Structures are given as structure tokens and as C-alpha cells.
Amino acid sequence: MKNIFIKRAAIYALSAALAAFYVLVLWCGKNPRVGIEYKMYYITHELSDWPGYGKLSYTLGTVEYCTGLYDEAGYEVGYTVCQRKGQGWYAPKNTGCLMREQSASLYYVPDSSAQNVQLSLTVSQFDGGGSVEVYADGELIGSISQKGEVHFIVPSVKQNELLTIRFEADGQLFRLYKASLG
Amino acid sequence: MNMLIKQYRENEDIRLFCKILFIFLMSRLFMLVMMAAYNLGMGSSRPVESLMNPWDAQRYRYIIDYGYTFPMDADPQANWAFFPLYPIVCMIVKCLTFGIIDTFWIGMLVSNACILAAAWQSAKLMQDEGHDEISGLSIALLMLAGPYAFYGGSVYTEAMFMLFIVLFFRACRKRKFLLAGCMAALASGTRIVGCTLVFALLTELYMELAPGRVSAAGIRTFAAKMLAEPKKILAVMLCPLGTFCYMTFLYFFCGDAWAFKNVQIAWRQEENFPIIGVLLKACTGQMEPRYTYMGWFCICAFAVYGYMLYKKHYSMAIFGIIALLVPLTSHVMSTCRFIVGTYVIYIGACELLEACGRRSRKLKQAILLVLAAIEGMMLVWWFDWGTWLM
């Protein structure tokens, strides 16, 4: 009788232990220990391209091209490709990356802090009237109304903190070819 | 030798196994003939392991050889979406053979052993359910030589997954629920939908503890009786163990316990409304033709599951439906493989075949022949990396 009681208690305890294990794993699942690139691409889907681990980090002054990783012949391109694009862009082409939605972003994690940093953009296509507004961390820093090279001032960038450059369009066809910060 | 003959004559199980082994050998011989015909027709000389293992089989081979890896900068398709139990078994077999056998052959050996065992146990399951030996052999024939049977001979998880599901339902029939829970745990370590066997187990337990229609009083009775029986609680708790163990591994490996789910974004970025939106888009031809076919295949599968509910195969039908709804939350891609891999469709198909057989035996034989011919055509397509079969 006592043995049966112990056996039953052990089975209940084992079931409870399994339940606790599942809760613990679910808690771990809710709190992943991952880098910002992983989180923004795989979990929140804010990034449209996988940049690679640690590849959102940015050295001020680096010029990046918003094309694919390979040229038309299938060879790897010899310049730095911008792989920090958020949602809202079409797949990149050799002429740049076309905005797909009303809002599209670029994400930077600068490796140093600076004030009044210049954001330089080369726009390879701009069709439609009006302008595309450019925001840095939610603050309006200027607008684009034609193709060509444009420059804006980002008030401040902080080391290892995410900087979001957001473009807000109103029906314009806007293709970004090149971008640099600093 | 005389001993063996005596065993064969006296032991019904051995007789059944020998018959299924014969079907298995014939089906594999047929595959080999198709391979030779393919090579002859195409003027190629591709070996067996190359012909039988396109698409995801390449990824399984990589996992068996090198384990799980991190995504590369240019390729976000990390191999975490592939559950570990099948690769682990293959790794063990590879170790036992001192690594001298090619990984594809190891994988095919494991898959073929599993599908043979699954077909045998499936025939016995049919007998458990009151069917005759012919029905048992029919289901074995469907599993070994019917459409999509080539998955059971390739480096894919389907064969092992089906084996665990068959063993799960056999354990349920024998009222060995703890064993059923263990089989579900193994299935959930093989594929994510193995977890959904918990619903099949709960259905079986409900029918055992509170027979009759589902009602509030019935559910109360069921809950009360369940709480009083710790073994049954443990059986239920065991079902998702395989998946949770894999999640624990992933948490320590890449920091994300849900990585197997989150990594899916690297395969498809289009987002559709789950299930209804996905099916509507697929079936109305708004996707590629292969997805339209897969959409309609899913509809047919649901119809078969509906028939199974009508025939009172409640737990199997519920498992089949839920296991199909899971992939349909994102896309119809690979659903034909998933449907076949969840095994219970074979029970429904076999019931339908029997219904045909009752009307005309020749009709049943003709259907089986047509299905075998379809498998032959599919095999050629499979050797050719047909995208409709991926």
C-alpha cells in the first residue's frame, strides 16, 4: 500500500517537474539571448535582409551601395553592400533599391559617438511630385524631391545605440543607390 | 531451417512480417528499375544515393555530418528548422559503422528500416481495429509503393515520424497510454507536429474515461478521473518533451528557443492570412501551379479526415487535421509531404479502398495499380528534383 502511494506520488512529481521544465523553456523562449541583427531579422522582422551577425554595426564614413551582393554575371561585387535595410523596400537591383511602401528604413549601430553627422544619399530614381521626408530616430531632418546626391545633418549618433533613418513617401517612386553617414 | 519454417507456419506475426517484407523488397526493386530506366533515358549515370536524395535530404546529410550551424552572412537559411531525432539516430548508426558508409546510405538505411517497421505495425494496427489481413497488406502496399512512398526511402524524417505515430496509435489501442506518451515524445523530437499527438492522446483518454458525447458533465468527469490517475497525466505531459528538449538545445546554441520557428522567415517572406487565406490563395490559382495542386491536395486530405470522423476514427482524424493546420498557417509548400508523413491519411485511404473493394474487388485492385503507377511517375520526377515534390 505504502509502495503504491510512493509510486503515485513519484509520478505526480515527475509530471509537475515536466510542467515546470516546459514553463522554464517557454520563459527562455520569451526572453531570447540574441544580438540585434538576429532579433530584427528573425524575430521582429524589421530587417528585410539578413545582414549577418554584428553587421548592423557601422564605422562612420563607410559608403554603402544599396544593390545585391552579386552582379549581373553572378560575381560578388567589390564594394560594401548596404544590408541594413528594414521592411518597405523591394529586393535590391544593380541600380539601387526601390521603396515599396509608404515607409522604409535603414538601421545603423555606430561604433563611435558623434554630433552633427552628415548623412549622404544618392538617389538614382525619383518619380512623382512632392517630396520624401527623411527622419533620424523620429526627428525630421529634411526631404528629397529629385534624384541625385543629397545631404542631411543627423544631430547626434551614439556608440552602439540603434539609429533609425526612416523615409516617408507619399506615392513617389524613390530608389536609393548609395548611403553614407559621417 | 525446419525451425524457421515451423515458426513461419505457426506464428501469424512472422507470416505477416514476411509478406510485408516481400512487398517492401518488391517496391525497392521497382525503385531500382526506375533508377536504371531514368539513367538510361537521360543518358546519365547518377548513383542511387544521388537520385533518391534531392532537396532537404541534402540538409539532413549536412546535419548528420556536421550538426547544426549558424547562418552565414549571405545565407540566412540556418538548418535549425530540421528537428534532431532523425539526424541523431543516423549519427549513431554512422558511428556504429565506423563512419565508413556514405551518409546518404546511412540515412536511407534508417529510413527504410523505419518505414518497413511502420508498415508492419500499421498492418497490425489495422488488425487491432478489426480489419482483416488483406486490409493490413493494403495499407502496407500504400505506404511502401503508393504515391509519395519514395519519401520513406530517402534521407527524410517521414519514415521515422510515421513509425512513431503508428506505435503511438497501437499503444493507445492497447490502453498503454504511458507508452503512447513516450512515442509522442519521440515524434515531437522528429517533427514539430509530433507535439499535436497530445490532442490525439487526449481524445483517446476522453473516450476511455468519459465515453459518450462531449458535454460539460463529460469534461468534468474526464478531468476528475484524469487527476486521479497520475500515469495518464504523465502520458499527456510527455507528448511535447522532444520539442522542448530541442528548444532547450537551441536556447543554449543560438540564444533563441524558438529558432526553429523564427528561421522560417528566411524561406518565405510573403505573409498570408493563416489557413483560410493560404488555402484560398493557393486553390484559386493566385500562386504557382504547384501550389494550386498542393492547395487542392490539402482540401482532399481534409475530406478524407472528415470521412475518418464519420467512421469514428476520432483521435486519428483530429491529429491529421491539426497536423495539417499547423503548416497551413504560413504556406501550402510541402504540404503533400506533410500529409503523407503524418500517416493517418493512410488509414482513411485504406478505409476508402475497402469501401470500393466491397463494391468491386477488381475496382480496388485497379485503384491500387493506378496508385503504384503514379508512384512510378513521381519517382522519375523525384530523381529530377521536381519542385512539385519538395
Structural summary, described in words:
Chain A is an alpha+beta fold and 182 residues long. Chain A folds into two domains: 1-31; 45-181, Jelly Rolls (Sandwich), CATH 2.60.120. Chain A is built from two helices and ten strands, in the order H-H-E-E-E-E-E-E-E-E-E-E. In chain A, a hairpin with a 2-residue loop joins strand 6 and strand 7. Chain A is elongated and about 90 Å long. The mean pLDDT of chain A is 93. Chain B has a domain at 270-359. Helix content of chain B is 72%, strand content 0%. In chain B, 45% of the residues are buried. The model of chain B has no long low-confidence stretch (mean pLDDT 94). The chains are: A alpha+beta (182), B mainly alpha (390). Chains A and B meet through helix 1 and helix 2 of A and helix 12 and helix 13 of B.
Q: How many helices of chain A?
A: 2
What is the total domain count of chain A? 2
Give the averaged pLDDT of chain A, no decimals.
93
Distance between the termini of chain A: 79 Å
Task: Report strand % of chain A.
Answer: 35-45%
Return residue spans of chain A where pLDDT drops below 50 for at least 5 consecutive residues.
none
How many E strands of chain B? 0
Keywords:
heterodimer; A: 182 residues; alpha+beta; Jelly Rolls; 5-stranded mixed beta sheet; 5-stranded antiparallel beta sheet; 36% strand; B: 390 residues; mainly alpha; globular
